[in-house]
Design brief:
By secondary structure, the protein is of the alpha+beta class. It is built from eight helices and 14 strands. Strands 1, 2, 3, 4, 5, 6, 11, 12 and 13 form a nine-stranded mixed sheet that branches. Strands 7-8-9-10-14 form a five-stranded antiparallel sheet, sandwiched between helices.
């Protein structure tokens, strides 16, 4: 059957979401998870996740530098999209329907959406799906560290700190402060993502002696969190957990790069559990200070 390729559009959202769900079910089944533990097999969860995350998927589609879909008989069977922020290309999503994988569709999508030599840095947050990992390695990106979701039922926590915190609004001053922190920790800026995050969840700026020393996003999802001094993570995470407990949330968790030793030690000491689902941060060259960082949850982008 012939496969055709075309640029994707925002209106493709429901169709590419179906491909994402089918591919995720297939991956978790091949990982050996019993059906009872695969929440993507539950229609109510699949529908509610789309409702909660449609704004995120729309943002990824609208701001992608490359967004390609593969079609057979007019039906989308695979897609890939990547962003470019301040010269850094990140592969955001890459999925092909089960049963059609290994037939060259993924390779063509990756060639279009993640071209070599198109940015000063290239990066991926990747699952441990072996065929995809092999493609990424061949594309010239390599694992730097694993990322795991750590979680627990939130409880009030008190930790003393000299950090000051205040809510942040979508203003030029806020974007400048966020950009300065990103430049120091990630090595690039991404105003377009912060504008989305500022509408999607509560942003907090952290200050010491009147100077902005970090930021964090909380509420609808936790992260990203970036702090100039990694030793501040326990105080910031204690505050976030306490607020989750006050809201009555059933779960509080973060997408944690395991190179962030201060956060690892604090969260494990608090009895947080590690979800058995591995993702890797991969890049063409090492960059960034990810020991000072917690990724966005869900981790569709850095």
């Amino acid at each position: 059957m012939a496969t055709t390729y075309r640029p994707g559009v925002v209106a493709d959202g429901p169709a590419v979401y179906d491909v994402f769900v089918e591919s995720t079910i297939d991956l978790e089944q091949r990982m050996g998870l019993p059906a009872a533990d695969i929440i993507w097999l539950q229609p109510d969860f699949v529908a509610s996740y789309w409702q909660r995350r449609q704004s995120l998927f729309d943002h990824l589609a609208r701001t992608a530098d490359q967004f390609w879909v593969a079609e057979q008989d007019g039906q989308i069977v695979g897609f890939a999209r990547s962003s470019v922020r301040d010269g850094v290309r990140e592969l955001l999503e890459f999925f092909v329907r089960p049963g059609l994988q290994g037939q060259g569709i993924g390779g063509e999508l990756l060639r279009r959406a993640f071209p070599a030599g198109s940015a000063r840095r290239r990066a991926i947050i990747a699952t441990r799906e072996m065929r995809a990992l092999a493609r990424y390695l061949k594309a010239g990106v390599y694992p730097r560290f694993p990322i795991y979701y750590l979680f627990r039922t939130p409880e009030p926590v008190e930790l003393s700190t000299d950090l000051e915190h205040s809510p942040a609004a979508d203003t030029p001053e806020t974007l400048a402060a966020l950009g300065a922190i990103d430049q120091a920790i990630l090595g690039f800026t991404r105003d377009v993502d912060h504008r989305f995050l500022l509408q999607d969840r509560q942003a907090i700026l952290f200050r010491r002696d009147g100077q902005v020393v970090g930021y964090g996003y909380f509420g609808k999802g936790t992260g990203p969190i970036a702090l100039l001094d990694a030793a501040d993570f326990p105080a910031v995470l204690a505050r976030a957990e306490s607020e989750a407990a006050a809201r009555g949330d059933d779960d509080f968790g973060v997408q944690l790069p395991l190179v962030n030793r201060h956060a690892v030690d604090y969260l494990l000491g608090r009895g947080f559990r590690i979800e058995d689902f591995t993702v890797f941060f991969m890049s063409d060259e090492p960059f960034g200070r990810f020991e000072n960082y917690i990724h966005s949850s869900p981790p569709f982008f850095m």
